[in-house]
UniProtKB/TrEMBL annotation, chains A, B:
Keywords: DNA-binding, Transcription, Transcription regulation. CDD domains: WHTH_GntR (cd07377). Residues 220-255 are annotated as: Disordered. Residues 1-68 form the HTH gntR-type domain. GO terms for molecular function: DNA binding; DNA-binding transcription factor activity. InterPro entries: GntR_C, TF_FadR/GntR_C, Tscrpt_reg_HTH_GntR, WH-like_DNA-bd_sf, WH_DNA-bd_sf. It comes from Aminobacter aganoensis. This is DNA-binding GntR family transcriptional regulator. Pfam families: FCD, GntR. The keyword Aminoacyl-tRNA synthetase does not apply.
Amino acid sequence: MSRSQAIADILTRAILDHRLVPGCKLGERELSEIFDVSRIVIRQSLIRLADDGLAQIERNRGAFVARPSMQDAMEIYDALTLVEQGVAAQLSDRLGPAGWAELRQHVERQRQAVASGNDALADVLGQEFHTVFVRLSRNKVMQEIHAQLVRRTTLLRSLITADFDYCNLLDDHARVVELLEKGRLKPAMELIDAHHRSVVRGYIMDRQVFPELTPREALEPYLDGKAGEAPKPAPRKKTGDRGGTGAHAHVHTAK
Amino acid sequence: MSRSQAIADILTRAILDHRLVPGCKLGERELSEIFDVSRIVIRQSLIRLADDGLAQIERNRGAFVARPSMQDAMEIYDALTLVEQGVAAQLSDRLGPAGWAELRQHVERQRQAVASGNDALADVLGQEFHTVFVRLSRNKVMQEIHAQLVRRTTLLRSLITADFDYCNLLDDHARVVELLEKGRLKPAMELIDAHHRSVVRGYIMDRQVFPELTPREALEPYLDGKAGEAPKPAPRKKTGDRGGTGAHAHVHTAK
DNA sequence: TCTTATTGATTGATATCCAATCCTGTGTTT
DNA sequence: AAACACAGGATTGGATATCAATCAATAAGA
């Protein structure tokens, strides 16, 4: 793989881990020193990030981690809902027994993780559910679109006031699978919609985000060869946020 | 705008106009001489094209215009159908009178173009319909996803045996609008699906595509400043293809 | 004729340099 | 003291030249 792609992947992970927060300057010189490559390679990486919606390049000003607006957030969640509803409709028509089994098995694995108190694993599995869901459509184009939207929702999570609990929404997943398998498409789609709406409605993005890490500090754990085993989640000072990047951050709006 | 973005746009147009056909080598040196820029700028342009799915970069081999497979074609049309159906569902809920008026007006303009024999205009309007349709969702993220899918379908049209008539499917457009406005969402969605399915089913992509133009010839009309007024459609030797890039190439499968 | 080796071309990447632009800090003016 | 103007520094966007690695196609040899 090209060096610029590899670096783009690292930057992407750092952003998704909330180690590089929205608005953070991604200076060419600084990054080139961090990764020990030339500025041009960094430029190419930044172009890739910008094409993916994770960075924003301003002419003669440089690249910054994207700072999506509330409007952007709603549009991203709308698009994600649209895609997942569409996939749900396709699956309810076309999915074979093996597919349903895989979905049920995934939910079951997550259930066991929750039961055994392994929150981190449950979180990861909760994220993965959506990916598996879309993968079963056997449409790589759709998978890539969906993955990009998920990345952007993860970026959004850097911007919200992190005063929420993670519930992995095992119930929602199980119910979606159940409804779809029974052919009850419409309730399933409404459940998907309701889920995403409840998430985005809890967003409060007025606050400015201040980077707690310099790019050098943020990227240090990803450097130095295949050290990717311990991905190092995001550090947070304030709340009890465990730093997960779960796609299921569920905001408790009701009291 | 950055030079690499401008060049990427030109390359994109040339590909969508079928002047650069799938498989065509996009050599860095050649392009850098054509556009009179350094190789680095070209590399950045090619990265953008690859991210958009219009080019494919092979390590140490270079970039080529993407050569999507039949599988890719089906997946792209599936994704397009999914997106447009989802947008249709949203519009049937949320679109106001002004929106419906705009859609009806667009269809009417296309009807007039057809009636007056202005096929070229009718073709453009037929393409635009889908774009307008998605724009009314007021979701820029969705718009960009849709636009990318449309670009890829246009690329696909370089690969099919061009033995079909262009009918602008005014009827389909009018009917979709009519059905949606009446709240008959399901038939409208089925109509969208049927349309795209009929298109992709007519595809025959066994044939190899041979470039009839060198990159230098293909790109010449786009160079030299704002000469973009006469976009120069694609040249075709064989059929009566008028060179349109209409999103509504409708294959007459039934006899 | 088939296999192997060499050569040429192209890509990936680096270093250095330059122009244009933006930010900032200072100094001047009112 | 406040507002404005200007100059300098820093950063980006880009050009050029160069080098290593890899691929492809040809040429040499069995």
